[in-house]
Specification:
Elements lengths: L3 H10 L2 H6 L5 E3 L2 E4 L11 E4 L4 E4 L5 E3 H9 L3 H12 L7 H8 L3 H19 L6 H10 L4 H6 L3 E3 L5 H8 L4 H6 L3 E4 L2 E4 L4 E7 L5 E8 L7 E3 L15 H4 L7 E4 L2 H9 L5 E3 L7 H10 L2 E4 L5 H16 L3 E4 L8 H8 L1 H9 L2 E2 H12 L5 H16 L4 H15 L3 H32 L13 H16 L7 E2 L2 E2 L8 H16 L4 H4 L5 H13 L7 H33 L1
Parallel strand pairs: 12-13, 12-14, 14-15
Antiparallel strand pairs: 1-2, 2-3, 3-4, 4-5, 6-9, 7-8, 9-10, 10-11, 15-16, 17-18
Helix pairs in contact: 3-4, 12-15, 13-14, 15-16, 17-18, 17-19, 18-19, 18-20, 19-20, 21-22, 21-24, 21-25
Length: 579
């Protein structure tokens, strides 16, 4: 357990406005600050920072907490690592908490990062070993025509074909089997622990802070899988990292080029396109899109020119648009990927290709017109329906008007007819969305599908009273000792397990020092902390004095008495029916 005095010192020195402003743009809204939420895609700001309580809450996705929980979410860190991150930012020296971290949560992030550095050194040494690394050098320098400087710049390496070389090396340095498996360096089967990467060219994954957080490996033959990537670890999450972003963020370009693979990115950097990045063995996610938004407002998608590449482009465009990033699509002819195109036609030809990249809708028109025979009436109707649905999803009326004109021209249709079909599609979509929102509202208010507080649906009225009561208690934890009808609030007064846990935590913290929401991040999940902050936020502008608190305590007790009375009546009724 990290002492409360240490946490409070960090919170004091790391003002929430200063820290969050380094990630998103905040604007003054009365006494608070608002901005676009970094945890979900939105166009209207719903992320609010409260200076008075040094907390935040998003009314769009429900994320909430204080500066520590913000960093946990934003940087994909556990509690101890988030505290250390903020301590470094504030220039605070901390005692070593790694022992406690290991006991409670397995190998620490810092330990995994240390191991990754040694692993990268090992792979690099193997690559330049005269005998062992010969096949990998033949592939990288011979077949892929990479210079030694490029190989060294990206820290490329080689994992030998044996099953225990790396394992034995790391064990000799003092790392444990638990750390090797937690960091996805080793796997385990009936015969013991084995190197996860074997016989592969290795690509270190480096985050924007310069930490080696993971690895990707490519086979040198036709075996499957072609690429193998580190799974999520205490130091790494695929959906929050992009290959080569640590270099691309320094580029003078005001855009990013997103490719499918490591080699595409490396080839583009070697050719001078230093703003190229790639996702890590997974499709682009909403989190990737929000990370990209921090650095640029424009993206060019340079995916492979096959069907899979087109589908990946469609998904990426949608997610990037939701995050507020303008995206364009590169159309390559005569090559399947950027690496092949540059080798065939050269750097300047690729630069022209970037300049000629298409908007999403131009790309869609070209794809749809190519897919259907528009000389056939039935096929033409299908093409028109597909384009009308695409246009209906566009928010801006001006954009829709432009796209309607383009679609009508491409299909030789009357512009007004296309407009009417688009408006009909918008109305259908609006009705479906309202129906969905109504259903969601019913589920939320009744507590159905409540993963944070699953007991809510059993007795919604009692659960709502508990949340209001805890909202006051989170603002005034000192109220816990107040006598209500000669008896302070106690564990037995709570119906839901979640509310009971929060109250017990507040009580325990009050015994050893002042309670703060920051401390909750050590014992509760991010979603649970967000729910607690929602309770606290819901009380803003309302009466939260001692009398209000006592009134809610009595209301909860009355609700519990009523519930017990109802249960007794059910038992008596059951017995009467048996007589």
């Amino acid at each position: 357990m990290i002492p409360n005095s240490v946490i409070e010192d960090i919170r004091y020195r790391c003002d929430i406005e200063d820290v969050i402003s380094s990630y998103i743009t905040l604007k003054r809204a009365g006494s608070n600050l608002k901005g676009l939420c970094p945890f979900h895609s939105e166009k209207t700001p719903s992320f609010t920072v409260y200076k008075d309580t040094q907390s935040f809450y998003c009314f769009g996705c429900g994320a909430g907490g204080d500066i520590i929980s913000f960093i946990m979410r934003q940087e994909n860190l556990d509690y101890v690592s988030a505290v250390e991150f903020l301590a470094r930012r504030a220039g605070i020296s901390l005692p070593d908490f790694s022992a406690a971290d290991t006991v409670h949560a397995g190998p620490s992030r810092s330990r995994i990062l240390e191991m990754n550095v040694e692993t990268a050194k090992f792979f690099r040494r193997m690559l330049f070993d005269d005998k062992i690394g010969a096949p990998a050098r033949a592939y990288l320098i011979g077949e892929r025509a990479l210079s030694s400087s490029v190989v060294k710049h990206f820290g490329l390496g080689y994992a030998p074909a044996g099953s225990h070389y790396l394992r034995d090396h790391l064990l000799s340095l003092g790392f444990t089997y638990e750390e090797l498996t937690a960091g996805y360096i080793c796997g385990k089967n009936d015969r013991g622990y084995y190197d996860y990467f074997r016989g592969r060219v290795m690509f270190p994954i480096i985050d924007v802070s310069g930490n080696i957080v993971a690895f990707g490996g490519r086979v040198l033959d036709s075996s499957k899988p072609k690429y193998l990537n580190t799974s999520d670890t205490p130091a790494f999450k695929k959906s929050k990292n992009l290959f080569a972003l640590n270099y691309a963020k320094k580029s003078e370009e005001n855009s990013l080029i997103i490719c499918e693979g490591y080699m595409d990115v490396i080839a583009m950097h070697a050719a001078g396109f230093t703003n190229a990045v790639a996702t890590l063995g997974t499709a682009i996610t909403a989190e990737h899109a929000r990370i990209i938004k921090r650095y640029v407002s424009k993206v060019i998608l340079a995916y492979d020119s096959d069907d899979a590449g087109r589908k990946a482009s469609d998904r990426a465009v949608r997610l990037l648009e939701e995050a507020g990033v303008d995206s364009r699509i590169l159309v390559m002819k005569g090559a399947k990927d950027p690496d092949e195109f540059i080798k065939k036609y050269g750097r300047e030809a690729f630069r022209r290709l970037l300049d000629e990249s298409r908007s999403k809708f131009d790309y869609t028109i070209e794809t749809v017109v190519g897919k259907y025979n528009i000389d056939n009436a039935d096929e033409k109707i299908k093409a028109a329906n597909e384009l009308c649905l695409e246009i209906a999803s566009v928010y801006s009326r001006v954009e829709r008007d432009i796209y309607i004109s383009k679609a009508a021209e491409a299909l030789s249709l009357d512009k007004n007819s296309v407009r009417l079909d688009v408006e009909a599609a918008i109305k259908r979509s609006s009705r479906a969305e309202k129906k969905k929102q109504t259903g969601e509202l019913i589920r939320v208010t009744s507590g159905i599908s409540d993963r944070v507080n699953p007991d809510f649906a059993k007795r919604p009225r009692a659960a709502r009273i508990e949340e209001a009561l805890l909202g006051i208690l989170l603002i005034h934890p000192e109220f816990e000792v107040l006598a209500c009808a000669d008896k302070p609030l106690c564990d037995e007064d709570f119906f839901t397990d979640f509310a009971h846990r929060i109250f017990s935590f507040i009580s325990e913290k009050n015994k050893t020092g002042a309670f703060s929401v920051s401390a909750m991040s050590e014992a509760f999940t991010n979603d649970e902390v967000s729910r607690a902050v929602r309770m606290q936020t819901a009380r803003r502008g309302l009466s939260n004095d001692e009398d209000t608190y006592k009134t809610y305590v009595e209301s909860l007790r009355e609700e519990n008495r009523k519930s017990k009375s109802d249960s007794l009546e059910d038992i008596l009724s059951a017995k009467r029916s048996q007589i």
